[in-house]
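Human: I would love a firmer grasp of how sequence relates to backbone shape in proteins. Could you go through the record with me and say what the backbone is doing? Here is the record:
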Amino acid sequence: MIQAPRGTKDVLPQESYLWQWIEQEMRTIAEKAGYREIRTPVFEHTELFLRGVGDTTDIVQKEMYTFEDKGKRSITLKPEGTAGVVRAVIENRLYADTLPIKAYYINSPIFRYENPQSGRLREHHQFGMEFFGSLSPSADAELIVILLALLKRFGINNLAVHINSNGCEKCRPSYLEKLRGYLKPYRNKLCDTCKIRIEQNPLRVLDCKIDADKPEVRGTPLMIDYLCDECDEHFENLKAILDKIEVPYTIDTSIVRGLDYYTKTVFEITMQTKGREMALCGGGRYDGLVSELGGPVTPAVGFGLGMERIILEMSNQNILPAAPPILDVFVCNLQKEDQSEAFLLSQLLRQSGIKADSDHMNRSLKAQFKYADKIGAKFVVIVGGEEESRGAVAVRNMNTKEQTEVSKNNLIQFLLEKGN
């Protein structure tokens, strides 16, 4: 009862500053590129994910938190962010407004029932960006560049861009037949789930956690060799743009992503660590998803970035920003029996934009100073001393230990000037 459910994690008060800092950086970089925030419900109708994500994916088959509500409706806690955004675009007819639609979501809770690992929880949080309305590969490139800039802003280096093409509804069917024909002789060497996938959706075999690294699967035909002219041109133009802006990349034919809605471009950003490459985030184009879910044909591209994964890597590399002080000023009162003067002064300081508090624990003056030092207060203001008769207070700089008498009328200006 008093333990968090397996695969979940509390964000404690001493950690929350880090999340807030990361969120602010994410907001800043997204809004500089013209993206605006969208917030969608934490749960959706299950059918949204069956149709959008794909009923043969691991997410749908094994990882969704699905339940029946009191109205006998099947509800699912969202296992990824894009489907909910697409549903909101359709329901609210955002596609009828001026295109493109550029939206981001932040600190969005995502739920997947899987074995908890370091940086991968059953409840985790994502930052994502979605770009609706453009067929141009420049939209794909924009998101890749934004991701790189954001990760570098966090101090994460040794990054690499991996790109591939998943084709489209024109060229993918013939490729899937080739893939199906290749895999059938190896059927008995595959897991039970992939034996079924060979017929239903052989592309999912390439993404299987059990079979993807088997030699038989690694030798499959490549989608990139079966692209139609439109997909091939799109991929070539994306490469040309990345070359033009000097973003190095690797063509990685193993990238298929774990969601069925991806078409054309798929990409991942990886980081070199301990002799291996680890995927930090990824995304791709999903030109058919809006129409698949009942909206008009609307091309789109997006990505998702796990916030816990980024915090973990920043911690591993010892590049976390320092925690800010909890308070600018702690107001001490010499009169333990009457804390009202210190309380009133702390309220006045707050109204002037100064982070301030006073003692609520009936501590001695020595204990109040010790507490102020522990929480990192820049200044201590002492009320109730001999300065009171002169309409003043004592202000101590907690770094230099210098103590100054300051008129109450000038206190706020003094603190604002000295605090900067």
Remarks:
- The radius of gyration is 28 Å.
- The first helix runs from residue 13 to 32.
